[in-house]
Design a protein that fits this description.
By secondary structure, this protein is mostly helical. It is built from six helices and no strands. The chain has a single domain, classed as SMc04008-like fold (Orthogonal Bundle), CATH 1.10.3340.10.
Length: about 100
């Protein structure tokens, strides 16, 4: 497979992941972080970094809007729930595991 085709396939897979996360609004970022070690905000940060590496300018809020499919503050108001004590404890345990 040539590099261009590989890049196109990776981009398509990324778009599908983002689209999937946009439709799975019941899945909270903290849950994704606990299970996978990344979340929608991480994807936005990776987009910003990728843009910088290509000499392009993309601010974090613009990247979050791409990932969330709407301004983050709107998504947060509509879909984000307060993390439970159990979620926070699991998140902390995951963070410690990743550092150790």
């Amino acid at each position: 497979m040539d590099k261009s085709t590989k890049t196109e396939l990776e981009a398509a897979a990324f778009r599908r992941l983002v689209s999937h996360l946009q439709t799975q609004t019941e899945v909270q970022n903290i849950e994704i972080m606990i299970l996978a070690g990344f979340c929608r905000n991480c994807l936005a940060k990776w987009l910003v970094t990728a843009a910088e590496e290509q000499g392009e300018s993309l601010d974090y809020e613009g990247a979050r809007e791409q990932v969330y499919g709407m301004p983050y503050c709107e998504w947060k108001d509509k879909y984000q729930k307060k993390a439970t004590t159990e979620q926070l404890e699991a998140f902390e345990a995951r963070q410690k595991k990743n550092k150790g």
